[in-house]
Design goal:
About 35% of the residues lie in helices and about 25% in strands. It is α+β, with helices and mostly antiparallel strands. A hairpin with a 5-residue loop joins strand 9 and strand 10. The longest helix has 16 residues. It is globular.
Length: about 180
């Protein structure tokens, strides 16, 4: 009936699904990055237009769109899921993998041979939150989902749930003297 899995709004999704109101899951969608093998250091911090670069991205994802738009000269390698993508990155099937920063941090926490490349995509504000995808025409269910999203946002639950998910993923979260989150 519905799918909740870090989906970003896209025009294609809006045409094919009922889409919920936006909800925020930490910084996971605000920052879109490239990860690479840690041995590469900062080799891919500045990739220009992507010429000579092989970039992995999940099929039909925001990251795939960002690669096509912002790295037009890169060779795009699409993959079905991030678990397979990590294996492909480690096997050298591509140089870097485009992911949401929160996903990248979870991947790095479990794969010490992987690191952030230092490259960040420019992300339009409309892509900085998540949506729930529902069957086209499921208006009553969409309204109920929107009601629950508003309640969770109003009670500050998304931030709590996101912090709990980071802890489960092994991502170290701490705060500086000004109260800004530091992840590592």
């Amino acid at each position: 009936d519905l799918a909740i899995s870090g989906f970003s709004w896209t025009e294609s999704r809006a045409e094919n699904y009922n889409i919920s109101d936006y909800y925020h899951a930490g910084e996971n969608e605000s920052n879109q990055i490239l990860i690479t093998l840690a041995d590469n250091g900062d080799k891919f911090a500045d990739v220009g237009t992507g010429a000579g670069l092989k970039v992995g991205a999940q099929t039909a994802s925001l990251q795939e769109s960002l690669v096509m738009e912002q790295l037009p000269d890169a060779e795009l390698v699409t993959i079905g899921d991030l678990g397979t993508a990590i294996l492909q990155l480690k096997n050298g099937d591509f140089d870097v993998l485009a992911v949401a920063e929160g996903n990248g941090e979870a991947i790095i926490a479990s794969n010490p041979e992987v690191a952030k490349s230092g490259f960040y995509f420019a992300v339009d504000e409309k892509y900085t939150a998540n949506v729930v995808l529902l069957q086209k025409g499921a208006d009553e269910l969409t309204a109920k989902v929107n009601e629950l999203i508003a309640k969770a946002e109003g009670e500050g639950l998304n931030e709590i749930w996101y912090a709990e998910a980071q802890a489960i993923a092994g991502i170290d979260v701490s705060f500086d003297d000004e109260g800004n989150e530091i992840t590592g």
